[in-house]
Design brief:
38% of the residues lie in helices and 22% in strands. The protein contains nine helices and eleven strands. It has helices at residues 145-161, 166-190, 199-211, 219-225, 230-241, 245-263, 268-274, 280-291, 295-301; strands at residues 3-5, 28-30, 35-42, 45-52, 58-63, 67-74, 77-84, 98-102, 107-114, 119-125, 139-142.
């Protein structure tokens, strides 16, 4: 049986706790007046469109007994963070068209200081109604064109009709089957120790490294992000990207430093700090090892007038 409503029960809540379960079974939003919501539910599934109505900071949270597929239809933020329990958090600024999978019982928390009006799609699936193993692996801000296409069609149905139909239920069922198929395919991909990272794993890891260039990153953090053991992750990473994770991280730091040296007047000391080196001598040594030049010599080699350095390397 289908149920259509413009406002799920949790909109009556006036406080938000990222750790608390939402008794209504739907994503909780704070502040509640910051969004408009449309919900269509039927046996074992529900689809919800959540549209921000003003550019205020907004937070979303969920922990429930249903699997949750999160689709960010529009999400460009000045600051923010997305968390799925069991995975490293992400502060990615542009999360438009990114998906996250929150298995039943896991916590989801997401906040936006938005540049544009945030628009989220939420899909809820009762594990008991799915013809597949109950356990799904959590995933954070991944991409999948097929899932995204079906989610967009369901969104249009909610917006156009405000009600369900046999086609609506059928499309929702197909989305659930496709989600399970993607999860199973990724699990099989992860099981091949001799292979490289799956495309979504490579994107997840490289994005995380870019977001945390100036910070130390533990191998355990990266391997947990893609659901692999540390040993298998290191092998797969090197096969996919040609370098061990630590060397890749160091190389990306130096590449970013080259960009800063070429496009800003910041001193060598400040550039080094910006990419995670607390000592100028360590930054200079790492830069020279990678490029064959000191940071100062690299800047002098660039065409056009260069800013003078506060620190001579």
């Amino acid at each position: 049986m289908l149920m259509v409503t413009s406002s799920p029960p949790e909109d009556s809540h006036h406080s938000f706790s990222r750790s608390a379960a939402d008794e209504s079974g739907y994503v909780k939003v704070h502040p509640v007046g910051a969004v408009a919501r449309r919900l269509v539910s039927w046996d074992g599934m529900a689809t919800e469109v959540v549209q921000a109505v003003r550019r205020d900071k907004v937070a979303f949270g969920y922990r429930g007994d249903r699997h949750l597929l999160v689709v960010c239809d529009q999400g460009l933020r000045r600051k923010g963070e997305t968390i799925v329990e069991g995975l490293p958090r992400s502060a990615l600024r542009d999360v438009t068209r990114k998906l996250s999978l929150v298995p039943a019982g896991h916590a989801y928390y997401d906040w936006h200081d938005p540049r544009v009006l945030t628009r989220m799609l939420y899909f809820y699936f009762d594990p008991a109604r799915l013809p597949a193993p109950a356990a799904l692996a959590p995933r954070l801000l991944f991409e999948d064109a097929t899932l995204l296409g079906m989610a967009s069609r369901l969104e249009r149905l909610v917006e156009a009709t405000g009600a369900g139909s046999p086609y609506f239920e059928a499309l929702g069922t197909v989305l659930a089957y496709e989600l399970l198929g993607v999860d199973a395919a990724e699990a099989r991909s992860e099981g091949h120790a001799k292979g490289g990272l799956a495309p979504w794993q490579q994107r997840a890891v490289t994005t995380y490294i870019e977001e945390h260039l100036a910070e130390p990153i533990a191998l355990a953090t990266l391997s947990r992000l893609v659901g692999l053991s540390t040993y298998h992750f290191c092998r797969a990473f090197k096969q996919s990207l040609g370098l061990p994770p630590h060397r890749y991280h160091s190389r990306r730091r130096i590449e970013h430093a080259k960009t800063l040296l070429a496009t800003t007047a910041s001193s060598v000391t400040m550039v080094g700090l910006a990419v995670g080196y607390t000592e100028t001598s360590s930054f200079t040594a790492a830069f020279h090892k990678t490029t064959g030049l000191t940071p100062t010599d690299f800047r002098r080699s660039l065409p056009g007038p260069q800013a003078s350095e506060e620190v001579v390397s």
